[in-house]
Design goal:
single chain, 121 residues, alpha/beta, Rossmann fold, 3-stranded parallel sheet, two-stranded antiparallel sheet, 5 strands
Length: 121
């Protein structure tokens, strides 16, 4: 029986066949491009587990460092690691002269609460 799952624009048909063949026939770690709240990543972890996969961790290329994501992964018991993050991105932009002190402050304020951030603050 083929099953189709969609999450964050990704469609997987019959993940038990597709995913088992990707990483030595067993999913140990889920890798995503970026993570903000962790919601969609944890939904995929749930689907993989329902299909009998063992998911022992999650890795992203980039994350924003939001507490909501840290809390969500901790609650799900999923170790989470990221290759880089928002703070490192800002630091690199400053070092390359792409961001000045005022812009840095604005970027850091946005990160504190992006859902309530106002450019005119």
């Amino acid at each position: 029986m083929l099953k189709t799952y969609r999450s964050s624009g990704v469609t997987v048909t019959n993940p038990s066949i597709f995913l088992k063949s990707v990483v030595l026939r067993v999913i140990k770690v889920k890798v995503v491009n970026q993570c903000s709240t962790g919601k969609s990543s944890l939904q995929v972890v749930e689907v993989l587990r329902k299909e009998g996969m063992e998911v022992v961790g999650m890795v992203s290329i980039f994350n924003y460092g939001f507490k909501i994501a840290d809390d969500a992964f901790a609650a799900a018991g999923i170790p989470y690691f990221s290759l880089t993050n928002y703070a490192s991105l800002i630091t690199a932009a400053i070092e390359k002269g792409m961001v000045n002190a005022d812009q840095e402050n604005t970027l850091l304020k946005w990160r504190e609460s992006p859902s309530t951030w106002d450019v005119n603050q």
